[in-house]
Write a structure and sequence with these properties.
By secondary structure, the protein is an all-alpha fold. Helix content is about 55%, strand content about 0%.
Length: about 80
């Protein structure tokens, strides 16, 4: 049986290896790899996103203000030992 995703996955792995990237993946179905990023985005959705951004530039400015003005200085970063 042909799986179209297998070819894309193989191509992706080949590209990352040729660029000497190290993939951040552990064994199959291990959800902890992405836990820190998922936690950040869940928090941002609750605390920062209140409406649709007018433009991409407005989105970038609002997200930068949130990350640098509130999230980094205020939030506890247990993943970093803080």
């Amino acid at each position: 049986m042909f799986w179209p995703y297998a070819e894309a996955s193989s191509c992706f792995r080949g590209t990352t290896q040729s660029l000497e990237f190290v993939q951040s993946m552990s064994r199959k179905a291990n959800r902890w790899d992405n836990a820190v990023a998922e936690s950040f985005f869940a928090t941002r959705k609750c605390e920062e996103v209140t409406a649709t951004y007018e433009t991409k530039a407005h989105a970038c400015q609002a997200i930068a203000r949130y990350v640098h003005g509130f999230y980094n200085p205020t939030r506890m970063h247990s993943a970093l030992g803080a």
